[in-house]
UniProtKB/TrEMBL annotation:
<keyword id="KW-0813">Transport</keyword>
<comment type="similarity">
    <text>Belongs to the autoinducer-2 exporter (AI-2E) (TC 2.A.86) family.</text>
</comment>
<dbReference type="Pfam" id="PF01594">
    <property type="entry name" value="AI-2E_transport"/>
</dbReference>
<feature type="transmembrane region" description="Helical">
    <location>
        <begin position="60"/>
        <end position="80"/>
    </location>
</feature>
<protein>
    <submittedName>
        <fullName>UPF0118 inner membrane protein</fullName>
    </submittedName>
</protein>
<keyword id="KW-1003">Cell membrane</keyword>
<feature type="transmembrane region" description="Helical">
    <location>
        <begin position="269"/>
        <end position="290"/>
    </location>
</feature>
<keyword id="KW-0812">Transmembrane</keyword>
<dbReference type="GO" id="GO:0005886">
    <property type="term" value="C:plasma membrane"/>
</dbReference>
<dbReference type="InterPro" id="IPR002549">
    <property type="entry name" value="AI-2E-like"/>
</dbReference>
<keyword id="KW-0472">Membrane</keyword>
<feature type="transmembrane region" description="Helical">
    <location>
        <begin position="221"/>
        <end position="249"/>
    </location>
</feature>
<feature type="transmembrane region" description="Helical">
    <location>
        <begin position="302"/>
        <end position="335"/>
    </location>
</feature>
<keyword id="KW-1133">Transmembrane helix</keyword>
<feature type="transmembrane region" description="Helical">
    <location>
        <begin position="154"/>
        <end position="172"/>
    </location>
</feature>
Amino acid sequence: MPNNDRLLVQIILLALLGAGLWVMAPFISALLWGAILAYASWPLMRLLTRLLGGRETLAAGLLTTLWILLVALPLVWLGFNLADHIRDATAFVRDVQVDGLPDAPSWLGGVPLVGERLVGMWDTIDQQGAALLTTIKPYLGQVGNWLLARSAQIGSGILELTLSLVFVFFFYRDGPRLAAFVLRLLDRLIGERAEYYLDLVAGTVQRVVNGVIGTAAAQAVLALIGFLIAGVPGALVLGIVTFMLSLIPMGPPLAWVPATAWLAWQGEYGMAVFLGLWGTFIISGVDNVLKPYLISRGGNLPLVIVLLGVFGGLLAFGFIGLFIGPTLLAVAYSLLLDWSRSGPVAPPRT
């Protein structure tokens, strides 16, 4: 009978755990981002807590406010600007439907070898604009739906970021107690190796954070060099923008592609070609080399495990997979190593 009671308690606990995970499922991604941000900036939290005389809640509030000012507000501003550009593009399409295309820009005719042909194509499109718009009209709805879906994703991403910044306050304030709680749970599950695996997860996340930030800094410096050589105005600001965009997948081209287009618009074709090649092979190319190296540096994981974790995690989970993928593979690899070493060794054959 006692065994039946114990089994019933275990079933109830599992049911409660499953229900709790179900309730928390919509917030898992925001919780992970909050935990990663808090862990990556924990030295800053400890320093601020010491400066404030050990007042953890005040330090957590100030640091969270700083993240809101540095991250959330610029993204909200970017979202509003994007909405304005979408509105301007919609107005441009409506004007083209009524008045046709404007006159071809003067620089278009000056493009070497193909300038006159491009002007002729521009005039042909202008003359046949009504027929062209009638042809592509069935597809405009699909494009609109695609833009609407992307806008919804951007909005949900900003909401998720805001939630993660709310959660990061509690991770700052209660971080040591949460770490002790997780350590006790792991100790009940896997015994004396609990602290080792907790350090393994923490070290892997720290190396990924270092890899992401280090790669973003390298791309920003390389972008600044390219902008200065090409003579793009506001090179320093664009370098800072490149650093911020480097924190998201495929972000740096959003900085150097418009700069390349601006150079071409100004007739600087040589510099436009240079910046396009520099951005493709140097700025964006360094991500594929430097980030895996920095993530694997200082750990005992094979490089192939790191590469599979980084790229497989991105494909499976999105940007958060950059942290989840290497962590999962690191833990699985270590578990398999422990299991293989603890098994009986077969006697050598004679």
